[in-house]
Design goal:
Pfam families: Glyoxalase_6. This is Glyoxalase-like domain-containing protein. The protein is an alpha/beta fold. It is globular. An eight-stranded mixed beta sheet has the order 5-6-7-4-8-11-10-9. The protein has a five-stranded mixed beta sheet with strand order 2-1-13-15-14, covered by helices on one side.
């Protein structure tokens, strides 16, 4: 079974972006990496990253930390039919969903991140699902042509697919956009470019490998 080892965000200022992600989310550089890029991009880049937590208090803590570090609020943290969450946009332009499926706190606030999910907005969910399945990704959940979630190895970035317009509605932004996605996936299944132009690269080999 293949999965996403990490994602690389392509940003104008890696130093500033690294400071933001450390202050806002406490992210390490194992699963979310940064590299410089001046490729043209405008509007919606077609994807979001989600930080999944155990309870609303953890969501609130990261939401406040993100805003304090310079993020823009796209949706406030609040209850919904599926749980609790909010949406922010980092200074580099990446959209982050901060979510939990639980509506009540059950313990002290920890700001611990249980899972990172990459949600790709695609034109044809069924076709893109087939594309990734042919490259060794195993479907975990599938709801026709609306949503697909692939299984992932422990510690990996979970990959999901959603209709582009629906993803824009969820995040509260217009889906108009063009140019670079400003993200690269790393997986043993790579290198390849998927039907919507998302690039997957082979993972970097360590010096002793």
């Amino acid at each position: 079974m293949n999965s996403i080892d990490s994602v690389t965000l392509e940003v104008a200022d890696p130093t500033a972006a690294a400071r933001f992600y450390s202050d806002a989310f406490g992210l390490d550089r194992e699963r979310v990496r940064l590299r410089p890029s001046d490729e043209a991009t405008s509007g919606f880049r077609g994807f979001t990253l989600s930080l999944v937590m155990s309870q609303p208090g953890d969501v609130d803590a990261l939401h406040r930390a993100a805003l304090d570090a310079g993020a823009t609020q796209l949706k406030p943290a609040e209850k919904s039919l599926w749980g609790y969450g909010g949406v922010v946009q980092a200074p580099d332009g990446t959209i982050w969903q901060l979510v939990t499926s639980t509506k009540k706190n059950t313990g002290p606030v920890t700001r611990a991140i249980d899972e990172i999910v990459l949600l790709l907005g695609v034109a044809d969910v069924k076709a893109t699902k087939q594309f990734y399945a042919e490259r060794g990704f195993t479907v975990g959940k599938s709801f026709g042509g609306k949503y697909v979630e692939f299984k992932g190895d422990p510690g990996s970035v979970k990959l999901s697919l959603y209709k582009r317009k629906a993803l824009g509605k969820v995040t509260g932004v217009s889906t108009e956009g063009s140019g670079s996605h400003r993200i690269a996936l790393a997986s043993p299944a790579g290198p390849f470019t998927d039907p919507d132009g998302y690039v997957c690269e082979a993972p970097e080999r360590k010096p002793d490998e």
